[in-house]
Amino acid sequence: MANYLLIPCSGDTSFVVDAGAFSIIEGNTYYLTFTGATKPGCYTVNSTSVSPADDTIDTVVDEYNDCFSCFVENNYSYHAQSCDIPGLEGFINANQFNEDPQGKFFTLCSEELFGGCLCVEVIGVNPLPAENTFVVLGPFKDCTCILSANTENFICIPDCEFTGSTSVSPPHPIWINGSGVPVMQTNMVLIGSGNGLNG
Predict the structure, then answer these.
(1) Between the CA of residue 64 and those of 78, 88, 122, 192, 195, what are the distances in Å?
(2) Rg of the chain over CA atoms, in angstroms?
(3) Residue 44's CB: how many other CB atoms inside 10 A?
(4) Higher pLDDT residue, 173 or 16?
(5) Rounded to whole angstroms, how far apart are CA atoms 103 and 122?
(6) pTM value?
(7) Hey, where are the domains in the chain?
(8) Which of 82, 127, 143, 158 is 20 to 30 A from 116 in CA distance terms?
């Protein structure tokens, strides 16, 4: 059979494999095992290759739509780090997410583990399952893990020379919803400081 360039879903360096007796399709994602030292896992077929093979496929366990579905079905976990507490990090089962969370921000809630909610950034993937279960909210746009409600309002500020104006995003009030998650009211403008008119 042909040689193929595989891209590991875990983000490791791509490499060339001999497909052996298997037919694999460019662009598809598979859970594969190998005859050599390459670790079993989720891989996407990039293209055929004329380079010599680094390993040979031993079994094609299953085919998936993408890396995320392969991670969920094979009980992978995602590596997350706290946005607020330096050095606090851990793993979250892939099946707790509705989309690929890598590089995104989420709120994890657990009364048992840390007595509330934490904002985290997902920074990697792990082929092993995680033990703990969380309530996962998000994704959010940054490490503040604040939801935005409604449509953003901008204020038009004329310049002192009256040659034009600048559009700026004013500060918005934030409230805590029933799940304990901060929600930014982008259709409202905060008057005064963060402490209200008297701040």
Answers:
(1) 18, 32, 22, 53, 51
(2) 24
(3) 19
(4) 16
(5) 5
(6) 0.72
(7) 3-71, 75-142, 146-199
(8) 127
